[in-house]
Amino acid sequence: MRYRFLPFLVVFFSFQVSSQTVKGIQIVKAELLSDATDFSKPFTVGIKFEIQPDRYLYWKNPGDSGLPIEVEWLLPKGWTADETRHPVPQKMAYENTVSYGYKKEVVLLTTITPTGSSRGPMKAKLDWLVCEKSCVRGKAEVSLDIRTRSGNQLADAKRILDRWKGLLPFARSENPVTFQKAVASMQGAGLAVEIPFQPKLGVQIVDFFPVSIKGFLIDYRTVGVKNNRIVFSGADEGTGTGEIFLSGLLIGADGKGYECSVPVKFSSL
What we know:
The chain is mainly beta and about 270 residues long. The chain contains 1 helix and 20 strands. The protein folds into 2 domains: about 160 residues, Sandwich (Immunoglobulin-like); about 90 residues, Immunoglobulin-like, CATH 2.60.40. A hairpin with a 3-residue loop joins β11 and β12. The radius of gyration is 20 Å and the shape is globular.
């Protein structure tokens, strides 16, 4: 994946700090949330970011510029964390770049599986890039002591987690389209690609956000959906296989996201 970085100031924070401050203004606040009370089975933890208006954090694929949020878990002995789940992001176009990310607030979700008798605090090391006209690097370590939460804290956490669970994309098994054979054509020194699909009755797909396109260097400005076709252009990275692997989110007219993953084979041009 390529990135075009805007100039940015690197700001380091000592661990145990859960907010990022620049020139006396708090621009990002991070914290851990969970409404779990039964730690004999897997439970959900949210990493909540509050972001100053007009600034934004990046999705797991930032697009043309930026860095994804990185999470390193520090858990009680024997506990494990599943892959971080990201809500459907916004598409942000600025001049000649397209990025994917979150404004104002976002909660990333993870399933924690406890084992053994340990009940020590859960911690996570976080690393992010927050941008406006310029970008600022942020780091923090956040923690949650599951033994000392009040009833009000549990109720607030449940309300927040339930909302953001509803903003996660649907799984691949719930993909509402059937893909058809891809078409590729030469466009200057690169390729223009169209992938037709047939949506289910009542479903309208209006955009596509790529997570990754293995073997293909993509021009994010060209990515979209037109007439039930995913369209994008870019350059083959020289794998010589005549095949790329497409994964990402189909975006419905209602803003819902649907995970999709499909190998795309091309005939000789």
